[in-house]
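Exercise 7. Predict the structure of Rab-GAP TBC domain-containing protein from Meripilus lineatus.
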Amino acid sequence: MWQNAVGNDLALSKDAYKACLSRAKRALSSGTFPTTILGFIDEDIKTTLPSLHLFAPETGPMYEDLKDLLCAWVVARSDEGQGYVTGVAKIGAMLLLNMPAMQAFLVMRNLLERHCMRSFYGGYTSKDDVQAYYRIFDTLLADGMPKIYFNFKQHQVSPAAYLPDWILSLFLDHLPFEACARLWDVLLLEGDSFLYRAALAILAVLEPRLFFPDSRELLELLRGENKAALEVAKRDGRPLNGGKYEIYGVDEESLWERIDSMDEWWKESTWTRLIQRELPDL
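Solution. The predicted structure, encoded as tokens:
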């Protein structure tokens, strides 16, 4: 279903993964594969779905598959002058859990070519588009959850402080695995508008915790590093190696409750209008 939902607008052949992986293997064996990027890949994999123990470096049964996938992706990106982006290991891992590596490569390449994802993965070359996506998110937040919006404005916390971390890993760094699996089913079918709807729902779940007297504490909470919540989680014996927001009690049920409640004000027509206004060339 995921493969059909994402499609193959890039018209990649079924041998695309084999060709890119072959190039990566030759570069690795000859010592020409950039060591800096290898370091980024290894660090990214270390923090990928640690609670599943499937991708742990050297010991995880799916570690080599994920590293091969990421190396092949780097080769494909290098043809466009793009580099590695931390967070992509989570996306690769989620796909490998659901399909063979060849299919995972095709889906990942096409998924990350969707405009919003391509913008956030594009680095400096797409910074103007990323700024447009920030403005869109701010407008939606102001319309649907004005208290949170004005609180963030008061503390000078912009979407740039939290939205990239959510989007680059498609929430796998922050939400429980089961919640992400359900989000992905809808996200891959509906596209960027649901990506934003899910992000807004996260803030809705976190809302009771967002009103801190200073911006430092607010940013710590958004990073999943709130000391008080961590202490409570430790005291209650809750695992701390899952999604970062599990310490706040964010789970599939609470998240979907907020997504459903947004039917009262969320309109696809508003999303379309904002895209046309902020990204007229899209």
